[in-house]
Specification:
With 210 residues, the chain is of the alpha/beta class. It contains 6 helices and 9 strands, in the order ββαβαβαββαβααββ. The protein has a single domain, classed as Rossmann fold (3-Layer(aba) Sandwich), CATH 3.40.50.150. It is globular and about 45 Å long.
Length: 210
């Protein structure tokens, strides 16, 4: 559903710039309603006391979660990008911190956060297993993640006439999983307790500790 991407100084795609959360398109809005509903339900199951948001982008979800956490800690990380910094400056709270760092080498202690989340991130990172290992290391209890569901995502792009030259692959997506393949991957890092499939995504909650 994205039309543009941002790229950092090293040529790494930092994310999509299409505002799917604030879109006025009725189809996008309906899809995002389903996405948000399932994400909120998984958040409720986890009931985290502190959160690390890996690949937080513009900080839309990070700021929303910061409000829900009250005075409890949340940190959002992403690659260095002036546009992202501009958005972060407009979404601030006393319990919210943004940091520029790579997901493959998180500068946090073991079990420093109750939950580590990566929402629409793992499809972008060059080594998703390394990122998940770092998230598992930093999380006491939970990992919450979502990715595009393949091949449905690419077929949806093709159906709307997008990205024909790349067979429907959104720019910046370097990893692709079906729901079953993604669930199998996550089972290497903990117990997959919930799997949701809001079209066209896969969303999972993984228990990594008591």
């Amino acid at each position: 559903m994205s039309t543009n991407v941002t790229v950092d100084g090293e040529g790494t795609v930092t994310g999509n710039t299409f505002d799917k959360y604030g879109s006025s398109n009725p189809v996008v809005r309906r899809l995002m309603e389903g996405f948000h509903r399932d994400l909120d339900e998984l958040w409720g199951i986890a009931s985290p006391t502190s959160v690390l948001d890996v690949g937080c982008g513009e900080g839309i979800l990070t700021y929303e979660w910061a409000q829900r956490l009250g005075d409890r800690r949340i940190v959002g990380i992403d690659l260095d990008d002036p546009e992202l910094r501009r958005h972060w400056a407009g979404r601030s709270r006393p319990n919210l911190e943004y940091r520029v760092t790579k997901a493959e080498n998180l500068p946090f202690a073991e079990s420093e956060f109750d939950m580590a989340a990566a929402i629409e991130v793992l499809e972008h990172v060059p080594d998703p297993e390394e990122t998940l290992c770092e998230m598992q290391r930093c999380a006491r209890r939970w990992i919450l993640v979502s990715v595009p569901r393949e091949p449905i995502w690419r077929l949806t792009n093709l159906a709307r006439g997008a990205y024909w030259r790349s067979l429907g692959n959104t720019p910046g997506h370097v990893n692709h999983w079906s729901s079953s393949a993604f669930t199998r991957l996550l089972s290497n890092y903990g117990e997959v307790v919930e799997v949701r499939r809001p079209f066209p995504w896969t969303m999972c909650l993984v228990r990594v500790g008591d």
